[in-house]
Amino acid sequence: MPSAAQEPSSRDLDIVLLGATGFTGALTAEYLADHGPTGLRWALAGRNRGKLEAVRDKLATIDPALADLELIEADSGDRASLDAMVRRAKVVISTVGPYIHFGEPLVAACAEAGTDYVDLTGEPLFVDLMYVAHHATAVKSGARIVHSCGFDSIPHDLGAYYTVKELAAKGPVAVRGVVRAGGVPSGGTFHSAMEIMSRARETRAAAKARRAVERRPEGRSSKAVAGKPHRDKVLGWWLLPLPTIDPAIVARSGAALPAYGPRFTYSHYAGAKKPWNAAGVALGAGAVMASAQVAPLRNFLLGRVKQGDGPDEARRAKSWFTVDFVGEGDGRTVHTRVKGGDPGYGETSKMLAESALCLAFDDNPKTAGSVTTAEAMGDNLMARLVAAGITFETR
Ligand SMILES: NC(=O)c1ccc[n+]([C@@H]2O[C@H](COP(=O)([O-])OP(=O)(O)OC[C@H]3O[C@@H](n4cnc5c(N)ncnc54)[C@H](OP(=O)(O)O)[C@@H]3O)[C@@H](O)[C@H]2O)c1
């Protein structure tokens, strides 16, 4: 548990947002400016003061009082600047990616200082390396390190959590989640995705190292199970296995929370209503995956997509997502859906900001170390997201 010097309540800032000058960081700053509670003590952080001032000027058009918002200069490559920043905050948000390049010093600083941390990573390699290196330190300091607080993986993690509660089975439970979405990625997301796909061997090694040190629940099991392409009998759609970070995170929540029952399994898919759409998705994903393996092709594609860019407001307004869940247990089946707008950015910045507010202000279950959104915030975060317009429904 935190020492007196590290007690979050003694800190003079509720939230610090590092990466406020980036595409998703700026949207997160706007969300906090629009929806943060009265009296929220927060600051923008980044490595370039001029850019931070420009973000603050924009926020002041939402709320003139934000013209005085504090700006903190901090660089991921300068550990002392991060230490000074995290000691002042209850929660630090990071939108600085690819996280495998820039993320570790901040996770280390938060784990040591007992400062809660949220990010947007969808990079399994980063999450597993951070677990091995910093989970134990965070458990000691009391810091909650919550990765993947955006479209990766909140709708999936909290959607599975909701489905398990709706099913309320006593015996083994199997859940499948099926994603459908329309939207365009930002430059930062494209760079991070390419990075993940080009490092498959390291990713497998990091997962193995994590398994060697991670405790499993006693007398229960929780597993992510890779599915096969098939036509779903409940949904009537064509499903393709989706190897993102999400199934591992859902399985971690299943391991942490006894409500998921004695034997929990989760499979994750992309869904298409027509078989030829499913074939198109499979071909497109295969082509990007193949390009990521060939360095000259990868570098060519990365050179054409600039970090800091992303879809404009009109494009984002047309974007959407649904994640359908089918839960089976005790001879019963339940079908639920999580639904929202622009998955990559509008809803992601909302989910990230609400996660930080939830850690800073809500009465959550006592947790510490590397924890999932369901484990650390469960019902409180779900209630916040529902109030903010994301739907969780049983069909
Ligand atoms: N999983 C999801 O659902 C989801 C959704 C959206 C985004 N993301 C992830 O979020 C991350 C950000 O995406 P984005 O599109 O917003 O990226 P971006 O526009 O490129 O922004 C990156 C930010 O990182 C900052 N930065 C870079 N190096 C830094 C350093 N050494 N020290 C401090 N700050 C540094 C940049 O600052 P400067 O302005 O000074 O360059 C900028 O503010 C990516 O990893 C992306 O994959 C995930």
- Total helical elements: 16
CA radius of gyration: 20 Å
> What would CATH call the class of the largest domain?
Alpha Beta
In CATH, the topology of the largest domain is named Rossmann fold
Helix content: 40-55%
- Ligand identities: NADP nicotinamide-adenine-dinucleotide phosphate
Return residue spans where pLDDT drops below 50 for at least 5 consecutive residues.
Answer: 1-5
Using the 3D structure, state the CATH architecture of the largest domain.
Answer: 3-Layer(aba) Sandwich
Fold and architecture overview:
- The chain has 395 residues and is α/β, with parallel strands linked by helices.
- It is 46% helix and 21% strand.
- The protein folds into two domains: 4-151 and 346-390, Rossmann fold (3-Layer(aba) Sandwich); 154-340.
- It is built from 16 helices and 15 strands.
- Strands 7, 8, 9, 10, 11, 12, 13 and 15 form an eight-stranded mixed sheet that branches. A seven-stranded parallel sheet has the order 3-2-1-4-5-6-14, with helices on both faces.
- Helix 1 (23-35) runs parallel beside helix 2, helix 3 (79-86) crosses helix 5 and helix 7 (154-167) crosses helix 10 (246-256).
- The N and C termini lie far apart (42 Å).
- The structure holds NADP nicotinamide-adenine-dinucleotide phosphate (NAP).
- Residues 19, 21-25, 46-48, 51, 75-77, 95-99, 102, 120, 122, 150-152, 186-189, 192, 307-308, 310, 344, 348 line the site of NADP nicotinamide-adenine-dinucleotide phosphate (NAP).
